[in-house]
Amino acid sequence: MAKDDSETEAAPADGAPKKGIVGKITGLLFGSMLKMIITGGVLLLLLGGGGAGYYFFFMGADEPAPGEEAADEPYVPIVAPTVAFYDIPDIIVNIQTVDGTPAYLKLGLSLELKHAEDKPGLQAVMPRVVDQFQSYLRELRMDDLKGSAGVLRLKEELLRRINVAAQPYKIQDVLLKEMIVQ
């Protein structure tokens, strides 16, 4: 029997298998697996290179090692700020309530001054300061003093009023030593 010419043309001369369904599937599997391995390797290199670059460029290169001093920066000793404090005598006032029952506010305050030399001058204007505080505090209601926001508003208003009453002296801050509401 003679072979068909179509059969001899279908088989390659070099002995490679036919490209059928099995050949296509194995080509897809091995081809996509190879692509995944290469992609994974490239991603690993990029992440590793990015992490190493971040470490070398941004992680503490400017800071000296523990126990070492920076050679180019001179040592500057820590000095206490030049502030002074002036204690105001306790202030007791009655405050308004919704139902008219008596309520009292007791404040212990300390004033932060920029210079200690301002203390004698502040002592001379202290009656004016206490008068400003008394007139403001008597108008307060119980709800005005509730919470940290109420205390902050109280301190801001007292600071504003004392800086007006104690002109030309400048008060930096009003510090609460004691605040009792009964």
Question: How many E-type strands?
Answer: 3
Report the radius of gyration as a whole number of Å. 42 Å
Strands across the major sheet, in which order?
A: 1-2-3
The chain-level structural class is alpha+beta
Order of helices and strands: HHEEHHHE
SS element count, helices: 5
Binned strand content: 15-25%
Helix percentage: 40-55%
Q: Average the pLDDT over all residues and give the rounded result.
A: 81
Low-pLDDT residue spans: 5-11
Quick one: biggest sheet? 3 strands, antiparallel
What is the CA-CA span between the terminal residues? 122 Å
Keywords:
three-stranded antiparallel β-sheet, 5 helices, 182 residues, alpha+beta, single chain, 45% helix
Explain what the structure shows.
By secondary structure, the protein is an alpha+beta fold. Helices cover 45% and strands 19% of the residues. The chain has five helices and three strands, in the order H-H-E-E-H-H-H-E. It has a three-stranded antiparallel beta sheet, with helices on one face. Strand 1 and strand 2 form a beta hairpin. Helix 4 runs antiparallel to helix 5. The longest helix is centred in the first third of the chain and has 38 residues. The radius of gyration is 42 Å and the shape is elongated. It starts with a helix and ends with a strand. 8% of the residues are buried.
Summarize the structure.
The protein is built from five helices and three strands; from the N terminus they run ααββαααβ. 45% of the residues lie in helices and 19% in strands.
